[in-house]
Amino acid sequence: MMKNADLDDFDRALLDRLRANNQTPARLLAEQVGLSESAVLRRVRNLRKNGVIIADVSVVHPAVLGTPLTIHVLVSLEREGTAALDAFERKLRAREEVQGAWYVTGEVDFVLLLRVRSMEAYATFTREMFHDDPNVASFRTIVTLREVEGLRQP
Questions:
Q1: Segment 61-102, tens digit of pLDDT
Q2: Which residues on neighbouring strands pair with residue 138, listed in sequence order?
Q3: Which CATH number goes with the domain that contains 37?
Q4: Number of compact structural domains in the chain
Q5: How far apart are CA 71 and CA 97, in angstroms?
Q6: Same domain for 136 and 77?
Q7: Which of 13, 25, 37, 81 lies 20 to 30 A from 124 at CA?
Q8: Which of 109, 135, 141 is nearest to 122 (CA)?
Q9: C-beta neighbour count of 109 within 10 angstroms
Q10: 110-116 and 69-77 as β-strands: parallel, antiparallel, unpaired?
Q11: Are residue 74 and residue 129 in the same domain, yes or no?
């Protein structure tokens, strides 16, 4: 995990714009944040080099990929020892439906973000991942009705 980076207002402004669209040309970024194009390019290169920007990705509409259904799952485990956590995380990494997973504190142990093609596909996922795993104590399902558009992606 990275420690807090020493970011100034220009870095934060650049990151804000790059999170919204990392394909924005340096010329436009320079105009938007009040720097020269060369300064923007240098700062963005340093943000990547220093691990502040960890990936450049394309966000693809889930329906195009055949996975229009977004489901959040709250999972509680029986045991949270190192071996049990590592085993569960390996299972999560092996499943293409799992688009995000967070080990959390509170009433549950994991919060999962899934993209699936149908409720039937989700039922299969739950049987294979949760019902067949003796370390899964319980899980709760939250089905997304619609996504609020226009928010920054994490």
A1: 888 888 899 999 999 999 999 999 999 999 999 999 999 999
A2: 76
A3: 1.10.10.10
A4: 2
A5: 10
A6: yes
A7: 81
A8: 141
A9: 22
A10: antiparallel
A11: yes
